[in-house]
Amino acid sequence: MKLSEIICRNSLYIISLIFLLFLCLSNKSFDKKSTLYFIAALITTAILIIVESLDVYFSYSEWEYSYIARNIACFFKISLSPLIPLFILFVTYYKLKKRFAFIPFAVSLVFCFINLFTGFMFYVSPENIMTKTIYFAIPLEMSAIYLIGIVGVYLKYYKKARKSEMVFVSFICIMAFVSAMIQVFCKIPFLVLSYCSIALVFYYLFLTIQIFKIDSLTLTQNRNVFENEFCFTNNGEKGVILVFDLNNLKHVNDEMGHTKGDEFLIYTAMLIKQCFEEMGNIYRIGGDEFAVICKDYTTTDILPAIAKFRSALSKTNYNVAVGFTEYNDIIKKKTAFKLADDAMYENKHYLKSIDKIFCLNKE
Question: Is 323 helix (H, G, I), strand (E, B) or coil?
Fold first, then answer.
């Protein structure tokens, strides 16, 4: 196979990776660390496609040292391949502890380096014939650990995501492993890296869709996602809806500036996350309003979290009104939201009356 044929064969994948690279560099919506890890995955994939292209080229070459070139190419191709799922794991959850995360890659790298001198995993003979042993699966197993990690992290930290999103992430990871197994046993070159190029495009689109669901200031889900929740109501579904309203936010903006107002919003969102994130989804539904939907909880279940929220808030100068109501087969989500909103306004008026009495007493 000529080198020009190999280049033409892989040009589509290289172009897609370059296109994605420009998108990542121009997209300011993503977290900087996540962007860097995604770019690292793109560059690693492009490098491995080039390395595998050289491996295929030398497998057809009549140069007397082709087998040496192939051994070196295979070393880089096999040892570096776990980096792609590793970087995507960091994109999925960049707070992951790096020291432990690099262990499977380090194992793959060490084994492949030892293989250069022993050939216990694979070797290319002077006749330019590649032989694999049962230990050849070690780097694949290390990559599989990262793929399982991606699914596991998503299930743990994004457990409130829709089932369709869970299926999508799981499917991408499963197909990556399946394509690797097919390439190994059926000897189809470029299958894994071709799949990785396509999968990276789809995963980037998936991440972009997630950005549209997030309020950029508070990093909670936005009103569109909240309203869509009312379109997905199943029989027997029950839970609690909470509504939060920041008292005097307009006054803070007018008297102290919008920066202080933003600090008020960010702090409130952080406090709501600390108290309710394990219980439900958090949304910013207005300029000064947040909501939480706690599925399969009752008002009794959430009372400790409300007490924790109010206790933490009492140590600040901020004031936030709270209202909540259960929903079930009788009281639907929309009705419960209206009742929770009414309860919040009652609490808001009560808090304002306390503030007024407090000010009068100070005078």
Answer: strand
Tally DSSP H helices, then E strands, for the chain: 14, 6
Do 152 and 51 have their domain in common?
yes
Q: Of 323, 329, 333, which Cα lies nearest the Cα of 302?
A: 323
Return all residues near 200 (Cβ < 8 A) that are at least 6 apart. 16, 17, 20, 38, 41, 42, 45, 88
What does the DSSP 8-state code read for residue 221?
B
- The total number of structural domains that make up the chain: 2
Q: Judge whether 161 lies within some domain.
A: yes
Q: Which residues contact 327 (CB under 8 A, 6 or more apart)?
A: 237, 238, 239, 240, 241, 333, 335, 336, 337
Answer yes or no: do 188 and 259 share one domain.
Answer: no
User: Which of 186, 211, 236 is the last residue in one of the domains?
Assistant: 211
How far is Cα 308 from Cα 302, in angstroms, rounded to an integer? 10
- pTM for this structure? 0.74
The answer to whether 322 touches 243, Cβ cutoff 8 Å, is yes
pLDDT digits (tens, 9 = 90+) for 69-106: 999 999 999 999 999 999 999 988 766 777 788 999 99
Q: Is 161 left (phi over 0), alpha (psi -120 to 50) or beta?
A: beta
Of 119-123, 328-332, 350-354, minimum mean pLDDT range: 350-354
